[in-house]
Specification:
416 residues, alpha+beta, 2 domains, eight-stranded antiparallel sheet, 14 strands
Length: 416
């Protein structure tokens, strides 16, 4: 596989020192078997890991954690929740804890550890749709195999199989490049020297992959070289600064873990992550670049990758709660996912970065740049109504129908 890539995010569950507050409260008789089987636990080894998420920005200790081995275990919990008079617990569902503002937390409630289902399934719980455009994955899965560049309507793909871009601002250039498993020390030195020579404070990197099956066929190498040449011929970039690596597919998928280890050694992994994830209109991405990368972030100390992906709009539909920016007009089939993956190295950085995120959002609002937050955290009902737009009434209808007691997903703070 020929690969040019940069850091994509994964996550670890962070823990805090806390104690469960459930005490000796008895469970309804319908849940006694789950408690007896050790699936419904109140010990600190279960509740503390479920009290925080990757963001390390907030914490909330649950009363208990359910480790289901089947859908029937989850059904038993929900039946008890809705059928028991005076049931005191909210219920949330947690996969890998990748959220950043407590979306999977259940303060004083019950957290359902969805990853537990994968331990008893006997194999990967991944189902791919017939058209190959969507994946239904178990809560234990990570998105190492995520593909945001979708196939064309005829089922074929473009010249590359995976595409993302990175932006390096100010002092983040050297540290950002060094933190990847792709660039050698010599590569980093050349890129940093080029930036210094040109006196630039923003460097853009485009990373793509081309998958192929070698299988002893020497002709594949020729085909790959030809495709790479045709792709590079169509791009404008600094001559001599195209970097190519040929690695096994499994190594490419595991690249994040390699970078995670590097960040762990630097003490930059288990820290607060005030991330800002946005979907931005394609027609205004240059304005976003000017106002954010070459504006607000100038003169700041950026710790963490800044990543952009082109995303096909037709991967989303009205049945999904994920919101995309308004259409720009004709042929607006792509928008950009912009991930500003900041890390707060010191306690003071948390407030500074949160204020910086608010400033970025205000800039976009004032500039009229169409955007939607991905995994937003709003605390005012009006913000949620504005976020969901025309879908809001349908979302309220579904909530009233399937969760009339407002017991599910309190950490989302949409209805609680």
């Amino acid at each position: 596989m020929a690969v040019v890539y940069y850091l994509v995010f994964a996550a670890l569950i962070a823990c805090s020192v806390a104690q469960s507050t459930l005490g000796d409260r008895p469970w309804p008789a319908s849940l006694a078997a789950l408690a007896a089987d050790g699936k419904l636990r109140t010990d600190a080894n279960a509740t503390v890991p479920a009290s925080m998420d990757f963001g390390n920005m907030t914490s909330a200790l649950p009363a208990a954690v359910l480790f289901p081995s089947s859908g029937a275990d989850i059904a038993a919990l929900l039946s008890a929740a809705h059928g028991t008079p005076g049931w005191p617990y909210t219920v949330s569902f947690r996969g890998r804890g990748h959220s950043t503002m407590g979306q999977a937390l259940a303060p004083g409630g019950v957290v359902v550890n969805m990853a537990s289902l994968g331990e008893s399934s006997g194999g990967p719980r991944i189902n791919v749709s017939e058209d190959g455009r969507h994946v239904d994955a178990g809560g234990e899965q990570t998105w190492a195999e995520e593909r945001l560049v979708a196939p064309k309507p005829d089922g074929s793909f473009g010249p590359v199989n995976y595409l993302e871009g990175s932006v390096f601002v100010n002092s983040s250039l050297a540290s950002g490049l060094t933190g990847t498993a792709f660039f050698s020390d010599a590569d980093v030195a050349r890129i940093v020297a080029l930036a210094a020579e040109r006196n630039v404070t923003v460097v853009y990197s485009i990373e793509a992959t081309l998958n192929y099956n070698y299988m002893g066929d020497d002709n594949n190498g020729t085909v790959v070289a030809s495709v790479l040449k045709s792709v590079l011929d169509g791009l404008r970039f600094e001559p001599g600064f195209a970097f190519v690596r040929d690695v096994a597919y499994a190594e490419f998928l595991d690249r994040v873990h390699v970078e995670e280890v590097a960040l762990e050694k630097l003490g930059l992994w288990r820290l607060p992550h005030p991330w800002l994830d946005l979907f931005v209109q394609r027609s205004r991405i240059a304005d976003f670049d000017a106002g954010v990368f070459r504006g607000i972030l100038q003169g700041t100390d950026v710790v963490g990758p800044l990543i952009m992906y082109p995303v096909n709009r037709d991967m989303f539909d009205d049945a999904m709660t994920a919101m995309t920016p308004d259409d720009d007009g004709e042929e607006d089939d792509v928008f950009y996912a912009v991930a500003l993956l900041f890390t707060a190295v010191t306690p003071a950085d948390v407030a500074r970065l949160e204020a910086q995120n608010r400033r970025i959002l205000r800039f976009m609002d004032h500039a009229g740049i169409g955007y939607k937050e991905y995994l937003p955290h709003y605390t005012v009902r009006g913000d949620w109504v504005r976020h969901f737009g025309a879908k809001w009434s349908r979302i309220v209808e579904m909530k009233n129908k399937y969760d009339p007691k407002r017991l599910l997903s309190p950490g989302q703070e949409i209805f609680n």
